[in-house]
Amino acid sequence: MKIALITDIHANREAFEACLEQAHLHGADRIALLGDFVGYGADPAWVVTMVQDLVAQGAIAVRGNHDDAVAGEPNPNLVEDARRAIEWTRAQLSAEQLDFLGRLPMRREEFGCLFVHANAWAPAGWEYILGRNEAVRSMMATDCRHTFCGHVHQPALYHLSSVGKIANFSPVPGVAVPVPGHRQWLAIAGSAGQPRDGNPAAAWAMFDLGRQTLTFHRVPYDHEATAAKIIAAGLPRALGERLLVGA
User: What domains can be seen in the chain, in order of their start residue?
Assistant: First the structure.
């Protein structure tokens, strides 16, 4: 079974479409959507509708901090541009869509894997996995051999040996990485809708459950048109301009 991992879409229709198309071309059997479907981008209603449709077809979906803020009360720690985007987004969604976001689980376990937006130790606290210390803390909080996260917007992969030795490396797009179950693994798929690693191409990953391999992918899309759409919608200009450079 091949599971496509897509996270941090952030209301970016063009990036989401590009990732879904490539996932299907690579033979994805299931889709796992790791949160932050809204916030920042200009197409929240379309993206939420697509997520609802995919969930109805069997996709895994978990709640991100921006989804949580739109469905409830914004986190006071959000920066001003993010808060403005949350308020704008809430006005674009129906009551049914807001209810859908608010009811999404914080975490899901299937196939011996954990799917979560931020981390395993406190999913609703929205703390970031920024390095080895946080990665170890997250892996120690679950019995699952493979944990898949979003939230950080930069692809990363960590593993923990049976004797507690932690290692990490930066994945190369298109290269399958063996992730055998005798170790614990934590993968951050990167952001589909708002990459922050200097590459504007949308990020996603594919986990091959049978082969025990993980492949990170990048897919170009018309990010210039998407940036222009964000600005035209009246959202903070910086939210569109950052798409141009992947920052």
Answer: 2-244 (3.60.21.10)
